[in-house]
Amino acid sequence: MIAFAGIPSCSAEQHGEVLRHVRLGRLFELMDWVEQGGPTLVPEADRPRSTDSPIREAVKLGNHSMVRFLWESGWQREWETKSLVSAALWEGGAPAIWITKYLLSQGVSLGNVTAFDVFRTHDDELILMALKMGLSVRGPDGFADALSSTGHSKHLLRLFRELRGIYPDLETEGLVALREAVDEGKVRAAALLTWAGVDPRVQFPHDPYDQAEYESEDPYLISALDSVEIDEKALQMLKALKVQITNDLWLRFFDRAGWLHPERLSEVYHWIPNGDEVLLAHPEWAAEITTSMLKHLACWGGDWDVGKKQEAQLKACEYLAYLGIPFLVTKEGHDIRSLRLSFGRAKDTEAVARLFWMIYERGDPAQRERLAEIVRTPKMQSIIRMHDSFLLRDLGLGPKRSASFKILKRDRRWNSDTYKAPYPFKKPEKPKFEDPPKRQPYFPPASVPEPERKGYWDKWSHFHR
Questions:
Q1: Confidence tier at 453 by pLDDT (50, 70, 90)
Q2: How would you write 113-163 as a 3-class SS string?
């Protein structure tokens, strides 16, 4: 009980005696002490410590009977109870849970207890008691952290499904937990949270606990689906999220793979059976995807496999140009400068020149005009001149005297009538697993006499398994 004015406090010797009874578990001796009129109130001190409190010592030891007696028959100062519940939960174990529920039933405040402390106990009665007393489930130490620390236990997910309608903040914590599971590549956790009813498409602020971001006019919103990383687990993660791969969703991931993970373009391409048809059905979107790939040719400067990434991007762009995707749909000078920078940093200049030629052959007059604007600089012209100098003349560039030359198709580096862009999206082969080697029979050594050779294997086979 909280002491009020007029309650006598212990002297230094009496306080030491009470602490000895508590630390040694001498409950009956402490009962006799109280019956004989001995004080239990901690002496007044300028800087009280937790080790000076008998009830906190009893909580630390997990002595439920001692805690109950001190609370019902002894006296405590207010500072002793401020973090008493959190001290009990810190110890962990069944005794700590019993003590915590008793203290809450007696009206002891939660103090600085967090949802992380309460939910990880997996005790429904304790969790409901804390929630009714105003426990906040949101925050850095909220329900999402408790869920992650327990391995996304089904017990807590069941509670989540039951309580989400009563405590709306649990909805936000579920979204946070799902996005964190996706970020960390935890397929099982993502599947469990989706089963519990968390929608992977819901977008919410990147930092859900930043009030300023919530109040911002243009907050940075991102969903769990947006956080799916394009790696070897991507398709499994989408299945775990119960997301149907529609054409729009596929185009989004194909775009992200093109500029961020070009080495996985082939894998993403085969997520749907009709990739070419989808790209041709969305020409503007496909053109933006292709332009984005070309702008990011210069982004692999410090990457050890820069050549492979650029090769995948250039091959994909050449194939899309061959299909008839309208390249270079923007005219802004910034975009042209970005494209020039990317083309200038490409390691395979022949692939760049072949792409320019393909755009010229398959594009409309507007595309050719924009292509001429891109290759107007000396560096771009030098790349073309190394591999197909006649393309400069076709674009209206280069020496004027070359305009009078008559060039046949067979004189060109690539013939538009016979050239076919290589298919860049070969389906990844499934790994082949070889059968384990067959067990070879064991023959007894030559030193074993002939009469014993017949039963040798039956006698000693357990040593050779």
A1: low
A2: CCHHHHHCCCCHHHHHHHHHCCCCCCCCCCHHHHHHHCCCCHHHHHHHHHH
